[in-house]
Design a protein that fits this description.
It is built from ten helices and four strands, in the order ααββββαααααααα. With 224 residues, it is of the alpha+beta class. A four-stranded antiparallel beta sheet has the order 1-2-3-4, covered by helices on one side.
Length: 224
């Protein structure tokens, strides 16, 4: 039966059918054995775990964190098996394995840790308007970052994601000069130092005849 037909038969939308649901543990109204020596029962909305006739653990019926901690501890101590928790409370086996791993890796405190909160968006509506105005003025990303207070990395991510228009690339202050200006200036300096104009840094000096030609030219100019 196809996914759509199954959803129609159950009178459910495809979205509701595909959405994962949290499967809560089912606590018995009376006493129920988890193993031969461990039992559980619900008393006045309190879940009590019994070892023989003695209560050893207790938590509120809706306290999932403590339920996960206690069942994980029972498994970790070797008192019960993972499948025993699955059969007793009707929870999925992958869920049991996941919380057992959390206990072994991080200890009991991980079950009561507050969920991390996402920090507020750095690029707020007000900041976005300022950034867009600076980009429209032709500012580069470093200039926009300095003027708006938004990190350049955040701006680059927003531009790549299409949330901001592209900014012009920043140019080096010397990039506006003619491409041959540096080379010409360097060649002139090399000529003064006795290095051939076409030589690069670390190249050998001009041959001896070049010096002789310069000296001869100088002497001719001096006589005239």
């Amino acid at each position: 039966m196809s996914h759509f037909r199954l959803a129609s038969a159950l009178q459910m939308s495809q979205t509701e059918l595909a959405m994962p649901q949290l499967q809560l543990p089912i606590f018995p109204s009376g006493s129920k054995n988890i193993t031969e020596g461990i039992a559980v029962e619900c008393r006045d909305k309190q879940v009590v775990y019994l070892c023989g006739l003695l209560p050893v653990f207790q938590h509120a019926e809706g306290d999932l964190q403590t339920f996960r901690l206690i069942t994980s501890q029972l498994i970790d101590m070797g008192v019960v098996r993972q499948v025993d928790i699955v059969d007793a409370f009707g929870v999925p086996l992958p869920t049991v394995k996941r919380y057992l791993k959390l206990l072994r890796d991080h200890g009991p405190k991980v079950f009561f840790r507050e969920p991390g909160r996402r920090s507020a968006s750095v690029l707020t509506d007000e900041a976005r308007q300022i950034v867009e105005r600076l980009i429209a003025e032709g500012k580069s990303v470093p200039e926009v970052a300095e003027a708006s207070g938004v990190k350049a990395n955040t701006l680059h991510k927003a531009i790549r994601a299409g949330r901001l228009p592209s900014a012009k690339k920043s140019l080096h202050p010397e990039s506006n000069t003619h491409p041959y200006a540096k080379r010409t200036q360097r060649n002139r300096q090399h000529s003064r130092n006795g290095v051939c104009g076409h030589a690069h840094r670390g190249a050998r000096s001009c041959p001896p005849w070049a010096y002789w030609h310069r000296l001869r030219s100088s002497s001719v100019r001096g006589k005239t």
